[in-house]
Amino acid sequence: MILLYASTFTKALGRLTSAEQKQVKITAFDLAQDEAGNGLQLHRVDKSPGFWTARVSQDLRLVLHKDGAHTLLAYVDHHDAAYRWAERRKLVPHERTGAMQLVQIVERTEEHLVYTESVGAVAPQPAATHRPFATLSDDALLNVGVPRDWLEAVRNADEASVDGLFDLLPDEAAEALLDVATGGRIEDHVAATAVAGADPFAHPDAQRRFRAVAGIEELKAALDAPFAQWAVFLHPAQRAPVTRDWQGPARVSGSAGTGKTIVALHRAVRLAGTEGARVLLTTFSKPLATALADKAMLMTEAVPERRDRLTVRALDQAAYDLYAAAFGQPSLATASQVRAAIEAAMKDGRGAGHDAAFLLEEWDEVIDAWGIADAQSYAAVPRLGRKTRLGPKQRESAWEVFAYVRERLGERGLTTWADVYARLGERVAAGKDIRFTHVVVDEAQDLSVAQARFLAAVGRAGGPDALFFTGDLGQRIFRLPFSWAKLGIDVRGRATVLKVCYRTSHQIRQTADRLLGREITDQDGVTETRTGTVSVFDGLEPVLALVDDTVAECDAVAAWLRAALAEGFAPDELAVLVRGQGQLGRGRAAAKAAGADLRVLTMHDAKGLEFRGVAVMALDEDVLPDADRLAGVGDIADLEAVQDTERHLLYVAATRARDRLMLAGVAPGSEFLDDLK
Ligand SMILES: Nc1ncnc2c1ncn2[C@@H]1O[C@H](COP(=O)(O)OP(=O)(O)OP(=O)(O)O)[C@@H](O)[C@H]1O
């Protein structure tokens, strides 16, 4: 007998009080030890073959499905609700895809009633005539996993009933139809077809809702984290890159909220399952690494040996530790020390024909990144990613400045981050142990050249699956683009894109997507496309408020926040985001006027976070793009790339919102808002 549990069960469990949850778990554990259920009070659900209820307490019932070979924990609720749920369900493999589905029985005479019930109070709508799926054939619908019983209801669905319909269909069918309803093609969602004799629970689409457990320990671990759906039920497109034996560096991308971080976590935990593996799961900032570490702890609770093989740290921190162990603690030069040295050299008459901003970028992206130590090396280096060409004379004059900077830093015993990564890279290339057999990098779009070179060395020294990246080119907010392939990280042919957005409502994601192109191609020709992305839930349209002055803006944002609070949003579920430190005051004033203690953050600091409601404010013409940043661009040819990072910042900020989004500023507002109007 195989014991399984369904995502409907863990979701239902999450809705109960913690005392009730405890009782349910005891019943579930009893069941795991006594699968025949002899010691439990089981009752057959008359109208639904295979369904039983197990008594948890006087009031609570656990719904099971038993077919001899399998026992499935399907649902849990109070007595009447549990029976009602079971009476309306059947468990059957889909006739075309073969994936096991928990299908809701269609009540033909009451189709509208069924839909509206599931989404709560939906007022009767005036007759809507548009039926978005009316012309889809049986074949087209069956191919994406729509159960046969639902074909007619799907084709009959109109604008008023369509949202409720999505809640009632199996996820794979709902996602395909959501895409169609928003202009996508149903052919892009054809599910894997049934293989004769295959286990219907093993189908990739079944694995996103059913999970087999090997024993009581595994069940305990799973039920102790009932809210963490992502820890168990991966989408097939998420599971595939996690489980595959990649024959080279691989990269997973996708719009904000498609679960890239979740994929990185699962991949790291999976790699840590191999004896002898030492896995580094990393990202670019400490707060993000801390959040990753918390999730990794949750996932490895029941597998302590994996936890021991997994290190979660920000990349700079990990590099610092490795460097300190190999060479002693580095004394790192700050950006302002480098800038001061460049300015001092220029004051001395070096670097004629260049300006300081240009030389600082040249230092960061070429001299320091590539560890250039003398004029000959500089004359020969390809200057990857730099757009303005430099002739031999110009390089000679620039080198006068860089030689001076190197000397000054050397005198003070200072190292740069690029030096740290370069020396570690050399150590790895020389076959010295760097502690890690695998590196999994989240938010990889913001890697620096020096970091990427170091990782390339790790990739060369390790096995074919040593490097795994997740990221979104549309969220590159710190770095200018450069070629990974030229540095030795070639993901071509091993790049996949996730298309199901779990975080943001359909309306918020669509609005945010308008800020970016449908496709972004990196320097190596790898294209990431946003078309076909669907969100798993609907919400309100984002609010855009362009007002006359900052006082009116404060009032508008405060009113919006108050309305959300009045509707039951907790203060920690809301955030106010602004472009930079200079606008934090405006954000705080709005939060204060709303009378709530809310997080007020810069857009950079909000990376990787999520909130139920987000107000992005101070979106003024001279704030975004940041006028100072644009004025400080040293190489005018980089202007567009810098402008892109500013646009990405607004995308990042807007996609932190799950349910509600407000965008506010003083008229005429940021030029980027024009794309949203
Ligand atoms: N398979 C899943 N089932 C349920 N929830 C999921 C699943 N995958 C991801 N999520 C949830 O979706 C949200 C977004 O996931 P995640 O942070 O991994 O996305 P992301 O692509 O890394 O986003 P960003 O690009 O904004 O950093 C999280 O709340 C996560 O728990």
From TrEMBL:
Catalytic activity: Couples ATP hydrolysis with the unwinding of duplex DNA by translocating in the 3'-5' direction; ATP + H2O = ADP + phosphate + H(+)
The UvrD-like helicase ATP-binding domain, residue ranges: 233-511
Assigned EC number: 5.6.2.4
Binding site for ATP: G254, S255, A256, G257, T258, G259, K260, T261
Class in the EC hierarchy, top level: isomerase
Keyword Thylakoid (UniProt): no
Keywords of the record: ATP-binding, Exonuclease, Helicase, Hydrolase, Isomerase, Nuclease, Nucleotide-binding
Molecular function GO terms recorded: exonuclease activity
Signal peptide: none
InterPro entries named among the record's database cross-references: DNA_helicase_UvrD-like_C, DNA_helicase_UvrD/REP, P-loop_NTPase, UvrD-like_ATP-bd
A Pfam entry, by short name: UvrD_C
PANTHER family: DNA 3'-5' HELICASE, UVRD / RECB / PCRA DNA HELICASE FAMILY MEMBER
Protein name: DNA 3'-5' helicase
